[in-house]
Give the backbone structure.
Amino acid sequence: MSVLTMRDRGRRVLALGNEAIARGALEAEIGYFSTYPGTPASEVGDSIYEVIDELKGLHFEYSTNEMVAFMGAVGANLTGVRAISAMKHQGVNVIADALGNVGYRGGARGLVIISGGDPGQISSNTEQENRWYAPLFHVPLVVPSTIQEAKDFTIEAFQISEEFEMPVMLDVSIQLCHSTGDLELGELPEAWPGAGRFKGQPRIDRRGPGSQEGPPGHIVLLEKEAKVRRIAADTELNRILPGSAPWGVITSGTCFGYTLEALNILGLKDVPVLKLGLVYPIAPDLISRFARGLKKLIIVEELDGFIENQVKGLAYDLDLRIPIVGKEVFPATGAFSATRVADKLSQHLELPLPQEFAAAKERRDRMASGQELAAPARGNAFCPGCPHRGSAYAIKLAKGDEGICGGDIGCYAMASGPPYNLTQWGLCMGASIGVGQGVAHKLPGTPVMAIIGDSTFFHSGLPSVVNAVQHKADFLLIILDNYWTSMTGHQPVPSTPKTVEGNPLDHVDLKELLRGLGVQYIRTADPFRPLDMAATVAEAMKVPGVKVVIAQGECVLQSQRRLRYQPASVKKVYDIEPERCQKCDICFAQFACIAIQSAEEDGNTYYYIDQGLCNACGACRLLCPNSAIHQTELNPHLVGAKA
Amino acid sequence: MTNLVIVGVGGQRVITLGNLIARCALEAGLTVRGHAQSSLAVLGGSVTYHLRLGPSYSPFVPHGQADVILALELAETLRAVPYIKDGGLALVSEDKKAPMNLILSHAHYPTPEEVAQIYRHLGARFILLPKENQKTQKGRALPEAWRLLGVMSAVTSFWSRKKIEETIAAYRPREASLNLAAFRRGYQLAQEIEAKAAASSPIEKAASAGK
């Protein structure tokens, strides 16, 4: 049973950080939840989606992009209903226009944004510091440290939002989103607000300078921020752990746990610690209270010196003349851990690391420098049976050396790596088309193409297609339609034709849509037949103007899952016949499916298909020039027929 | 407090295994913190699950503090080296999933002996699960994750075998019989390994215990 729907208050359960946030939102009686999936925040929405039938009254949606998600939340909020929108850190860039305006316009009461950060750049293209959005748009910023706080602070964020009539941002790092731990449940409502009452926005003359003091919207916004700053001195979101040492630590989020553990490792048991839960704005009173009598402040935070910046500013006003150390000790790049914090603290304080840590560190350094055998790098690769592998192979074949191909954000980004080395640019969501048309206009005569996934196409590809058609770019767009937002956990997209159980869905027809946008040349291709697809792409390359090839092949993880609901389907098994295999390396090194592995016997290398990895897409069989790959069909109706 | 680091490759059920152990610990009344890090590749990427059973400050096992390393893939075992503590235990599957870059560059894939030597040198006990091709009556291979859990259950005393079996059965009822078969095979295998270690000469025994 999902931890989101358990009714026993006070029960301790195991929850993921993202689930704890979702649980908090449900306990806070939200009426509207919208999200565009993005790691690390995807499971906030996924965990609600999983049990949506049991959540009476709640509107849930996977929106086409973060902006649409957030604007919907604003709309629901204008009817007096609590609303929440979850996204990854870069998703906040997408909502920035709305977020910058919502404070001026007012009307937000009970509006929370979940921003999933990625220190260490584990699942993103940047490790952008989103906390800067708080001062940029004057949004209060709440940062939880633990699974329990992830739930409790989500509820707290709604209270701040309602009290001060401002949206509140909850910043959670991937290290908390994907943490598992125990969570004590609170009270769940019987139902969630099904309908609201339109309240609208307050009447602020927002057009011109209302007075010499400036635009009224801006003035009201700053007044509200000042009010939050006043309560920030005493809010229970912030905590002081007292200690007798002459210096103290200010920290927040997951760094709080790392700091306590690091201090413990170094045997420093009496250091006072200020843990900030409300990270913006910070009250001067709080800093002066904590720093009283201290000779130094050490600030432990990942990424930019956001707290450091605020504390140093406040220290000037407070006439606090003690050293404040932050980024000069703790780097602004990469994720932290107790190990890393202990290491940096020990260097700064000139304290020795305990022997076992020093030894482990030395060992790690030796492995990193190649002096000791280390684990081989395991770069990102397509899953066995992934339709994108066939697409990458086919496009590379068709493109040859003369064509230029761009990429976008999604699983198919792995086509940029070896052995395909397909894509030559990548930027942000939708940039395959946006950048591609610019390249095309300035490279007449060169075939310019780009790949984009179905979900990314809907997210931010559409406006660029319209633009390319209007301005007559000579450009080939290849939509890799695998029916799902696969990389983030298989959320449905507007064009998903059926659920994993096999039930048909109302869906947008990609071809009709493109035709409506003015694209004249549209072809479909099957990525599981790479040679046929290469021919389709090669033909499309010759056509002038904007043309689109849609590579239709379902994400193999989903089609495999569907087999569970169709136990009577024929199972296919593929094998390599060693006698026929000429080791031409097409399947092994060029198509490069990781289910095809090599082994040695009596000094001879041979290739085989790892049945534990193979997902039976069959593409390798069609590529083999020696017909060395066999397909066996196991028909469940025939099993046992002999007996 | 007990620290575990589970390593493997996407698709080997590293996260499912970690979640199951976490659940056993929670039901035994322990506080649990854990963190699973997987790569962008859903299948075939590197996966690491840190798990701390008992009071802890953060979900990540500090260097040199892991009591147990569970490795579902041989080469990935090397990724966990900095975490093992002196006197710790490494339970390692012989399963080989060569990464694509290694395949393309024809680079060296580590041998079990090379990996074992590193762990033993660090004072850890290293147990290698020999590859077995046992299958169920329906022809399904026994999932390596549960075989490894069986071995851990036999050589450690975290929870009773019965308790773990109950949790396995309740956790994924649809796959319970397959998972239990693998778990029991692992348990049996570990007993055989232990018996062999006990019968060997004191010198070899000391070597295998890493003391």
